[in-house]
Write a structure and sequence with these properties.
single chain; alpha+beta; Porin; 8-stranded antiparallel barrel; 4-stranded antiparallel beta sheet; 2 helices; 26% helix
Length: 290
Amino acid sequence: MFNCRIAFLAAFAVVCAGANAQSTQIASAGYAEALSPISTAVSSSSSSSAGDAAPIVSARQPRTRRADDEMRIRPFSRVAVASKLGTLGWGGQIATPITRRINLRGGADIFNMGYGLTSDGTNYYASAHLKSGTIQADIYPFAHSSFHVSPGVMIFRNSLTASLNVPGGNTFSVGDTDYTSDPSNPVTGSGLIQFGRTNMPMLTIGFGNMIPRREYKHISFPFELGAAYTGQNTIAINMQGGVCQAGQGCGSASDPQFQQNVQQQQAKINENLKRIQIYPVLTTGVAYRF
């Protein structure tokens, strides 16, 4: 009886031990199975993050354009106007871009001046009435610099005149000959300077851009220096009145001998004018770009 009880207890213990081992194995398998998706997800996430991070770090971010960056230039897309003052007189200009480094510019000027003086007993008065129009291309050879070279054409309409008045009894010289103005018919005269060309090539250099390339900038102060080719300039002299010579009495200014001396004087002046075949151009002003 005692032996049967021991055998029963031993068999029960073996069965319980087997059941516990099986439960533990099942539980372990379930735990491993439960952890497996999480681990896989974590690994996948880590791999994905690592893979995605590389392009983000290596990719270059696009540059954000600032409001003061250079504006986009298209032909005739902008316009500027200017007021200027210089050797051509007072006038105005208008400009528009052709390319990033070239502007097309046109202008008009008016110049009026009168000046009187007395020399060697003769009264002189000179007057200038000039009208001109210009068309130029402003070429900017250097990036981010307002220095420009501007070839162009100038249309010149001019009136340069001078008058003289020799009071009676005063002495004056014409063609290396001395004369005295007739007191009863004082000598008067006039001179007219004519330019050899009315359409003149011109070239200037300067600083300033009437079409600033920055969006925020509208005002500029252009300055330029150069010259226009006028060709051969000539003067025509005309004299009237009575002239007197010592020991020869008085006669008319239309006398052939006197007129020959006038022509001699005129030729001498014209010979000197051959050395001056350019008109200086110097201007400055203020411009506004729309």
